[in-house]
Amino acid sequence: MKTLLKNAREKKGLKSRELALLLDVDQALISKFESGSRKPTREQVVKLASILDIDLEILMVAWLKEKILYELKDEEFAIKAMMVAEEEMRYYATPKKKVSTSLKKMLDEIDNLKSKLDKFREFDSYRIAQALELEYTFESNRIEGNTLTLRETDLVINEGLTVSGKSMREHLEAINHQEAIGYIKHLMEKNSNLNEREVLSIHNLILRGIHPEDAGRYRKVQVMIKGSSHMPPQPFIVAKQMEDYFFWYEANKKALHPVVLAAEMHERLVTIHPFIDGNGRTSRLVMNLILLSHGYIIANIKGDYESRMEYYQSLEKAQTTSNKEDFLLFIAKIEKESLERYISIIGV
To answer: Is 273 an annotated catalytic residue?
Structure first.
Protein backbone atom coordinates (compact mmCIF):
# COMPACT_ATOMS: atom_id res chain seq x y z
CA MET A 1 0.00 0.00 0.00
CA LYS A 2 2.83 2.39 0.82
CA THR A 3 4.27 2.10 -2.73
CA LEU A 4 0.80 2.49 -4.21
CA LEU A 5 0.23 5.76 -2.35
CA LYS A 6 3.62 7.26 -3.17
CA ASN A 7 3.44 6.33 -6.87
CA ALA A 8 -0.08 7.74 -7.17
CA ARG A 9 0.92 11.00 -5.43
CA GLU A 10 3.94 11.48 -7.68
CA LYS A 11 1.87 10.64 -10.77
CA LYS A 12 -0.58 13.36 -9.76
CA GLY A 13 2.34 15.79 -9.34
CA LEU A 14 1.49 16.47 -5.69
CA LYS A 15 4.01 17.22 -2.99
CA SER A 16 3.59 15.64 0.44
CA ARG A 17 2.50 18.93 2.00
CA GLU A 18 -0.09 19.47 -0.75
CA LEU A 19 -1.57 16.02 -0.20
CA ALA A 20 -1.55 16.63 3.55
CA LEU A 21 -3.49 19.83 3.05
CA LEU A 22 -6.08 18.09 0.88
CA LEU A 23 -6.41 15.26 3.40
CA ASP A 24 -6.42 17.71 6.32
CA VAL A 25 -3.57 15.99 8.17
CA ASP A 26 0.04 16.84 9.09
CA GLN A 27 2.66 16.46 6.37
CA ALA A 28 4.60 14.10 8.63
CA LEU A 29 1.64 11.71 8.61
CA ILE A 30 1.75 11.45 4.81
CA SER A 31 5.40 10.45 5.05
CA LYS A 32 4.50 7.79 7.62
CA PHE A 33 1.71 6.45 5.38
CA GLU A 34 4.17 6.16 2.49
CA SER A 35 6.87 4.54 4.63
CA GLY A 36 4.42 2.08 6.14
CA SER A 37 5.08 3.14 9.74
CA ARG A 38 1.49 4.35 10.14
CA LYS A 39 -1.77 3.12 8.66
CA PRO A 40 -4.51 5.50 7.48
CA THR A 41 -8.02 5.12 8.86
CA ARG A 42 -10.81 3.73 6.69
CA GLU A 43 -12.14 7.25 6.13
CA GLN A 44 -8.68 8.45 5.11
CA VAL A 45 -8.35 5.53 2.66
CA VAL A 46 -11.60 6.60 0.97
CA LYS A 47 -10.36 10.22 0.73
CA LEU A 48 -6.94 9.15 -0.56
CA ALA A 49 -8.54 7.04 -3.29
CA SER A 50 -10.55 10.06 -4.44
CA ILE A 51 -7.70 12.58 -4.24
CA LEU A 52 -5.12 10.34 -5.92
CA ASP A 53 -7.49 8.78 -8.50
CA ILE A 54 -6.83 5.27 -7.20
CA ASP A 55 -9.50 2.62 -7.67
CA LEU A 56 -11.17 2.40 -4.23
CA GLU A 57 -11.44 -1.39 -4.35
CA ILE A 58 -7.71 -1.76 -5.10
CA LEU A 59 -6.71 0.60 -2.31
CA MET A 60 -9.19 -0.88 0.19
CA VAL A 61 -8.00 -4.43 -0.51
CA ALA A 62 -4.37 -3.35 -0.01
CA TRP A 63 -5.32 -1.60 3.26
CA LEU A 64 -7.28 -4.59 4.59
CA LYS A 65 -4.48 -6.98 3.62
CA GLU A 66 -1.98 -4.99 5.66
CA LYS A 67 -4.38 -4.84 8.62
CA ILE A 68 -4.79 -8.61 8.52
CA LEU A 69 -1.05 -9.22 8.21
CA TYR A 70 -0.31 -6.85 11.06
CA GLU A 71 -2.78 -8.65 13.34
CA LEU A 72 -2.08 -12.25 12.35
CA LYS A 73 1.42 -12.61 10.86
CA ASP A 74 2.91 -13.97 14.11
CA GLU A 75 -0.01 -16.27 14.95
CA GLU A 76 0.75 -19.97 14.57
CA PHE A 77 -2.72 -20.92 13.34
CA ALA A 78 -3.36 -17.82 11.22
CA ILE A 79 -3.58 -19.61 7.86
CA LYS A 80 -6.01 -22.24 9.17
CA ALA A 81 -8.12 -19.54 10.80
CA MET A 82 -8.25 -17.57 7.55
CA MET A 83 -9.35 -20.65 5.62
CA VAL A 84 -12.18 -21.30 8.07
CA ALA A 85 -13.22 -17.63 7.98
CA GLU A 86 -13.14 -17.31 4.20
CA GLU A 87 -16.53 -18.86 3.48
CA GLU A 88 -18.26 -17.01 6.29
CA MET A 89 -16.74 -13.68 5.23
CA ARG A 90 -18.01 -14.25 1.70
CA TYR A 91 -21.56 -14.24 3.06
CA TYR A 92 -21.04 -11.28 5.35
CA ALA A 93 -19.67 -9.31 2.39
CA THR A 94 -22.58 -10.12 0.06
CA PRO A 95 -23.69 -6.83 -1.50
CA LYS A 96 -27.25 -5.84 -0.57
CA LYS A 97 -29.62 -5.43 -3.51
CA LYS A 98 -32.04 -2.57 -3.66
CA VAL A 99 -35.71 -3.49 -3.83
CA SER A 100 -37.71 -2.63 -6.94
CA THR A 101 -40.19 0.23 -7.05
CA SER A 102 -43.11 -2.22 -7.09
CA LEU A 103 -41.83 -4.10 -4.06
CA LYS A 104 -40.99 -0.88 -2.20
CA LYS A 105 -44.57 0.34 -2.76
CA MET A 106 -45.97 -2.96 -1.46
CA LEU A 107 -43.70 -2.90 1.60
CA ASP A 108 -44.79 0.67 2.39
CA GLU A 109 -48.44 -0.42 2.21
CA ILE A 110 -47.69 -3.36 4.50
CA ASP A 111 -45.97 -1.13 7.05
CA ASN A 112 -48.87 1.32 7.00
CA LEU A 113 -51.24 -1.56 7.74
CA LYS A 114 -48.96 -2.82 10.50
CA SER A 115 -48.82 0.66 12.06
CA LYS A 116 -52.61 0.78 12.00
CA LEU A 117 -52.83 -2.64 13.62
CA ASP A 118 -50.23 -1.77 16.28
CA LYS A 119 -52.55 0.94 17.62
CA PHE A 120 -55.27 -1.62 18.25
CA ARG A 121 -53.37 -4.59 19.61
CA GLU A 122 -55.66 -4.59 22.64
CA PHE A 123 -58.40 -5.88 20.34
CA ASP A 124 -56.36 -9.03 19.68
CA SER A 125 -58.33 -12.10 20.68
CA TYR A 126 -57.15 -15.60 21.52
CA ARG A 127 -60.14 -17.02 19.64
CA ILE A 128 -59.36 -14.99 16.51
CA ALA A 129 -55.71 -16.06 16.65
CA GLN A 130 -56.76 -19.69 17.14
CA ALA A 131 -59.10 -19.55 14.13
CA LEU A 132 -56.45 -17.97 11.90
CA GLU A 133 -53.82 -20.48 12.98
CA LEU A 134 -56.25 -23.29 12.19
CA GLU A 135 -56.72 -21.80 8.71
CA TYR A 136 -52.95 -21.62 8.31
CA THR A 137 -52.57 -25.31 9.20
CA PHE A 138 -55.38 -26.21 6.80
CA GLU A 139 -53.96 -24.17 3.88
CA SER A 140 -50.30 -25.12 4.40
CA ASN A 141 -51.20 -28.80 4.45
CA ARG A 142 -53.58 -28.39 1.49
CA ILE A 143 -50.68 -27.01 -0.57
CA GLU A 144 -48.90 -30.32 0.04
CA GLY A 145 -51.89 -32.47 -0.96
CA ASN A 146 -53.65 -33.03 2.37
CA THR A 147 -57.39 -33.57 1.67
CA LEU A 148 -58.82 -32.69 5.09
CA THR A 149 -61.33 -29.84 4.87
CA LEU A 150 -61.11 -26.84 7.20
CA ARG A 151 -63.91 -28.27 9.33
CA GLU A 152 -62.27 -31.71 9.42
CA THR A 153 -58.95 -30.11 10.37
CA ASP A 154 -60.73 -28.41 13.28
CA LEU A 155 -62.30 -31.69 14.42
CA VAL A 156 -58.94 -33.48 14.33
CA ILE A 157 -57.00 -30.76 16.16
CA ASN A 158 -59.53 -29.36 18.62
CA GLU A 159 -61.91 -32.26 19.16
CA GLY A 160 -59.46 -35.15 18.85
CA LEU A 161 -61.76 -36.93 16.40
CA THR A 162 -60.82 -39.30 13.59
CA VAL A 163 -62.30 -38.50 10.19
CA SER A 164 -63.55 -41.51 8.27
CA GLY A 165 -61.90 -42.04 4.90
CA LYS A 166 -58.84 -39.94 5.70
CA SER A 167 -55.41 -41.46 6.19
CA MET A 168 -53.49 -41.50 9.46
CA ARG A 169 -50.81 -39.39 7.78
CA GLU A 170 -53.34 -36.64 7.03
CA HIS A 171 -54.45 -36.64 10.66
CA LEU A 172 -50.85 -36.43 11.87
CA GLU A 173 -50.04 -33.63 9.42
CA ALA A 174 -52.81 -31.52 10.92
CA ILE A 175 -51.84 -32.23 14.54
CA ASN A 176 -48.11 -31.81 13.89
CA HIS A 177 -48.47 -28.53 12.02
CA GLN A 178 -50.61 -27.01 14.75
CA GLU A 179 -48.00 -27.99 17.33
CA ALA A 180 -45.28 -26.49 15.14
CA ILE A 181 -47.19 -23.17 15.11
CA GLY A 182 -47.21 -23.29 18.90
CA TYR A 183 -43.47 -23.90 18.84
CA ILE A 184 -42.62 -20.92 16.61
CA LYS A 185 -44.81 -18.72 18.82
CA HIS A 186 -42.83 -20.00 21.80
CA LEU A 187 -39.57 -19.11 20.03
CA MET A 188 -40.94 -15.66 19.22
CA GLU A 189 -41.93 -15.02 22.83
CA LYS A 190 -38.48 -16.12 24.03
CA ASN A 191 -36.89 -13.87 21.40
CA SER A 192 -34.80 -16.87 20.34
CA ASN A 193 -32.31 -16.44 17.53
CA LEU A 194 -33.05 -18.48 14.42
CA ASN A 195 -30.43 -21.22 14.14
CA GLU A 196 -29.93 -24.78 12.96
CA ARG A 197 -31.26 -26.32 16.16
CA GLU A 198 -34.55 -24.42 15.89
CA VAL A 199 -35.09 -25.26 12.21
CA LEU A 200 -34.40 -28.95 12.89
CA SER A 201 -36.83 -28.82 15.82
CA ILE A 202 -39.54 -27.32 13.59
CA HIS A 203 -38.98 -30.06 11.04
CA ASN A 204 -38.97 -32.72 13.74
CA LEU A 205 -42.47 -31.61 14.76
CA ILE A 206 -43.69 -31.65 11.15
CA LEU A 207 -42.62 -35.24 10.49
CA ARG A 208 -43.14 -36.68 13.97
CA GLY A 209 -44.92 -40.01 13.71
CA ILE A 210 -44.90 -39.80 9.90
CA HIS A 211 -41.21 -40.38 9.10
CA PRO A 212 -39.68 -40.67 12.59
CA GLU A 213 -36.32 -41.80 11.21
CA ASP A 214 -36.06 -38.61 9.09
CA ALA A 215 -37.71 -36.11 11.45
CA GLY A 216 -35.27 -33.32 12.33
CA ARG A 217 -32.50 -34.80 10.16
CA TYR A 218 -31.00 -33.72 6.86
CA ARG A 219 -31.64 -36.07 3.96
CA LYS A 220 -29.04 -38.64 2.95
CA VAL A 221 -30.39 -39.33 -0.54
CA GLN A 222 -30.84 -37.27 -3.68
CA VAL A 223 -34.38 -36.02 -4.32
CA MET A 224 -36.35 -34.51 -7.19
CA ILE A 225 -39.23 -32.08 -6.82
CA LYS A 226 -42.30 -33.33 -8.67
CA GLY A 227 -43.37 -30.87 -11.37
CA SER A 228 -40.29 -28.66 -10.99
CA SER A 229 -37.17 -28.31 -13.12
CA HIS A 230 -35.12 -27.26 -10.10
CA MET A 231 -32.71 -29.97 -8.93
CA PRO A 232 -31.86 -29.77 -5.23
CA PRO A 233 -28.19 -30.19 -4.23
CA GLN A 234 -26.61 -33.59 -3.66
CA PRO A 235 -27.05 -34.87 -0.08
CA PHE A 236 -23.35 -34.67 0.79
CA ILE A 237 -23.35 -30.85 0.46
CA VAL A 238 -26.67 -30.20 2.23
CA ALA A 239 -25.06 -29.64 5.65
CA LYS A 240 -22.59 -27.14 4.16
CA GLN A 241 -25.34 -25.28 2.32
CA MET A 242 -27.36 -25.11 5.52
CA GLU A 243 -24.33 -23.68 7.31
CA ASP A 244 -24.13 -21.03 4.59
CA TYR A 245 -27.88 -20.47 4.94
CA PHE A 246 -27.45 -19.40 8.57
CA PHE A 247 -24.37 -17.32 7.74
CA TRP A 248 -26.51 -15.47 5.18
CA TYR A 249 -29.23 -14.92 7.75
CA GLU A 250 -26.83 -13.45 10.30
CA ALA A 251 -25.34 -11.15 7.66
CA ASN A 252 -28.70 -9.88 6.40
CA LYS A 253 -31.15 -10.03 9.30
CA LYS A 254 -30.70 -6.36 10.21
CA ALA A 255 -30.20 -5.06 6.69
CA LEU A 256 -33.36 -6.27 4.95
CA HIS A 257 -37.01 -5.39 5.43
CA PRO A 258 -38.54 -8.17 7.60
CA VAL A 259 -40.96 -9.26 4.85
CA VAL A 260 -38.10 -9.54 2.34
CA LEU A 261 -35.94 -11.34 4.91
CA ALA A 262 -38.77 -13.79 5.65
CA ALA A 263 -39.39 -14.47 1.96
CA GLU A 264 -35.67 -14.94 1.27
CA MET A 265 -35.29 -17.40 4.13
CA HIS A 266 -38.31 -19.33 2.85
CA GLU A 267 -37.00 -19.48 -0.71
CA ARG A 268 -33.42 -20.32 0.26
CA LEU A 269 -34.49 -23.16 2.56
CA VAL A 270 -36.89 -24.80 0.15
CA THR A 271 -34.30 -24.44 -2.65
CA ILE A 272 -31.72 -26.35 -0.60
CA HIS A 273 -34.52 -28.86 0.12
CA PRO A 274 -32.56 -30.27 3.07
CA PHE A 275 -35.17 -32.81 4.17
CA ILE A 276 -36.61 -35.93 2.62
CA ASP A 277 -40.12 -34.54 3.23
CA GLY A 278 -41.75 -31.53 4.89
CA ASN A 279 -39.56 -28.87 3.22
CA GLY A 280 -42.46 -26.63 2.16
CA ARG A 281 -44.20 -26.62 5.53
CA THR A 282 -40.91 -26.06 7.38
CA SER A 283 -39.92 -23.21 5.05
CA ARG A 284 -43.27 -21.48 5.50
CA LEU A 285 -43.02 -21.86 9.28
CA VAL A 286 -39.52 -20.33 9.26
CA MET A 287 -40.88 -17.46 7.15
CA ASN A 288 -43.72 -16.88 9.58
CA LEU A 289 -41.45 -17.12 12.62
CA ILE A 290 -39.48 -14.19 11.20
CA LEU A 291 -42.65 -12.23 10.43
CA LEU A 292 -44.12 -12.81 13.90
CA SER A 293 -40.81 -11.90 15.54
CA HIS A 294 -40.94 -8.50 13.83
CA GLY A 295 -44.53 -7.79 14.83
CA TYR A 296 -46.20 -8.82 11.56
CA ILE A 297 -48.80 -11.57 11.28
CA ILE A 298 -48.79 -15.00 9.69
CA ALA A 299 -48.66 -14.85 5.89
CA ASN A 300 -51.12 -17.59 4.95
CA ILE A 301 -50.59 -18.86 1.39
CA LYS A 302 -53.80 -20.46 0.18
CA GLY A 303 -53.89 -24.04 -1.07
CA ASP A 304 -56.43 -23.59 -3.88
CA TYR A 305 -55.24 -24.34 -7.43
CA GLU A 306 -54.79 -20.74 -8.57
CA SER A 307 -52.88 -19.63 -5.46
CA ARG A 308 -50.79 -22.78 -5.41
CA MET A 309 -49.77 -22.36 -9.05
CA GLU A 310 -48.81 -18.72 -8.54
CA TYR A 311 -46.78 -19.74 -5.50
CA TYR A 312 -44.99 -22.60 -7.28
CA GLN A 313 -44.32 -20.64 -10.47
CA SER A 314 -42.81 -17.64 -8.68
CA LEU A 315 -40.74 -20.00 -6.52
CA GLU A 316 -39.44 -21.97 -9.49
CA LYS A 317 -38.50 -18.75 -11.29
CA ALA A 318 -36.44 -17.74 -8.26
CA GLN A 319 -34.79 -21.15 -8.14
CA THR A 320 -33.96 -21.50 -11.84
CA THR A 321 -33.19 -17.91 -12.92
CA SER A 322 -32.02 -16.26 -9.67
CA ASN A 323 -34.67 -13.59 -10.31
CA LYS A 324 -36.57 -13.43 -7.02
CA GLU A 325 -38.73 -10.41 -7.78
CA ASP A 326 -41.93 -12.37 -8.49
CA PHE A 327 -41.53 -14.51 -5.37
CA LEU A 328 -40.79 -11.52 -3.11
CA LEU A 329 -43.82 -9.70 -4.52
CA PHE A 330 -45.97 -12.81 -4.04
CA ILE A 331 -45.04 -13.15 -0.36
CA ALA A 332 -45.50 -9.40 0.17
CA LYS A 333 -48.95 -9.61 -1.41
CA ILE A 334 -49.90 -12.52 0.87
CA GLU A 335 -48.75 -10.61 3.97
CA LYS A 336 -50.65 -7.50 2.86
CA GLU A 337 -53.84 -9.52 2.29
CA SER A 338 -53.40 -11.27 5.65
CA LEU A 339 -53.01 -7.91 7.45
CA GLU A 340 -56.05 -6.44 5.66
CA ARG A 341 -58.19 -9.41 6.62
CA TYR A 342 -57.02 -9.36 10.23
CA ILE A 343 -57.78 -5.65 10.55
CA SER A 344 -61.25 -6.18 9.07
CA ILE A 345 -61.94 -9.03 11.52
CA ILE A 346 -61.09 -7.01 14.62
CA GLY A 347 -63.11 -4.13 13.16
CA VAL A 348 -60.63 -1.24 13.20
So the answer is: yes
